[in-house]
């Protein structure tokens, strides 16, 4: 099955040796990781991406498959949380316009920069985010009206571009960076910020990254189908839970995931040597 000649070749024969049990395990991993991701605003790649590699899919193909599936996460979460984006369409537009070029650049530089530097950079950022969220008890619990000037918008767009680079190269945890960037820059609460992250990072950034990774060739159709289903259902379920539980619950899970992702990336870094 072919999307386009110059984009993806979906091969139903790749990894066809995975038995029904293995495919079911992949579905459960996908569903649960995306439930947590949709509540906290990111982190699905921490579980889903290594799991794909563990089942024998090469890194670049696993990254492309993960990005395709994460578009389904974004769609599932956006369907449930679309009302939370009202009055923030300008912010959404900026994240798309300035983030996507970074994502595309990241897919190209990932092969030029050693993995250990990328993992270390993201690990430091996520641990600092977790610490910052921990010492700021009221962070993201309520929306705060902030006076936004031209410099703030410029800084926001530059940071969106940089996070986009990390998204295109590592993927794991960058949704968390965008979520905290929205809270810190515009004074939004967690629920609103995560809803924006679903739409921008989940759908647009990951779709752009998946297309940019087209050079990798054939992708496993059976695995993509399983992950799309798990990601969509996980995204919708997690978004529903976040609306029920509210900002305090989201903040706690966000803080825990930041520490978990940072420490996991450091552990992975030591395993590279």
Continuous helix count: 10
Mean pLDDT across every amino acid position:
80
What share of residues is helical? over 70%
- Summarize the helix and strand pattern as letters: EHHHHHHHHEHH
What's the N-to-C terminus distance?
Answer: 39 Å
- Based on Cα principal axes, name the global outline: globular
Low-confidence stretches: 1-16
Number of strands: 2
Major sheet characteristics? 2 strands, parallel
Domain module tally:
1
Strand order of the largest sheet: 1-2
Rg, Å, rounded = 18 Å
Strand % is under 5%
Structural classification:
mainly alpha
Overview in brief:
With 273 residues, the chain is mostly helical.
Structure description:
The protein is mainly alpha-helical. Helices cover about 75% and strands about 0% of the residues. The chain has helices at about 20-40, 45-55, 60-80, 90-110, 115-135, 150-170, 175-185, 190-210, 220-245, 245-270, and strands at about 10, 220. It has a two-stranded parallel sheet. Mean pLDDT is about 80; it is low at about 1-15.
């Amino acid at each position: 099955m072919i999307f386009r000649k110059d984009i993806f070749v979906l091969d139903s024969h790749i990894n066809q040796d995975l038995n029904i049990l293995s495919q079911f395990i992949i579905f459960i991993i996908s569903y649960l990781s995306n439930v947590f991701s949709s509540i906290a605003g990111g982190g699905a790649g921490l579980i889903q991406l290594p799991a794909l590699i563990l089942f024998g899919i090469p890194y670049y193909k696993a990254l492309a498959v993960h990005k395709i599936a994460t578009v389904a996460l974004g769609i599932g979460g956006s369907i449930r949380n679309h009302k939370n984006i009202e009055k923030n369409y300008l912010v959404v537009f900026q994240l798309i316009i300035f983030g996507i070029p970074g994502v595309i650049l990241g897919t190209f530089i990932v092969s030029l920069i050693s993995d250990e530097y990328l993992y270390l950079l993201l690990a430091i950022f996520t641990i600092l985010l977790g610490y910052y969220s921990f010492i700021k008890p009221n962070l993201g619990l309520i929306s705060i009206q902030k006076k936004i000037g031209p410099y703030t918008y410029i800084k926001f767009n530059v940071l969106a571009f940089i996070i986009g680079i990390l998204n295109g190269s590592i993927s794991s945890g960058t949704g968390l960076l965008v979520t905290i960037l929205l809270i810190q820059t515009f004074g939004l609460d967690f629920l609103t910020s995560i809803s924006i992250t679903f739409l921008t990072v989940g759908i647009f950034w990951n779709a752009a990254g998946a297309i940019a990774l087209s050079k990798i060739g054939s992708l496993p159709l059976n695995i993509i189908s399983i992950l799309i289903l798990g990601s969509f259902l996980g995204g919708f379920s997690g978004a529903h839970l976040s609306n029920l539980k509210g900002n305090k619950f989201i903040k706690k899970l966000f803080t825990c995931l930041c520490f978990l992702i940072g420490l996991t990336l450091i552990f992975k870094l030591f395993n590279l040597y």
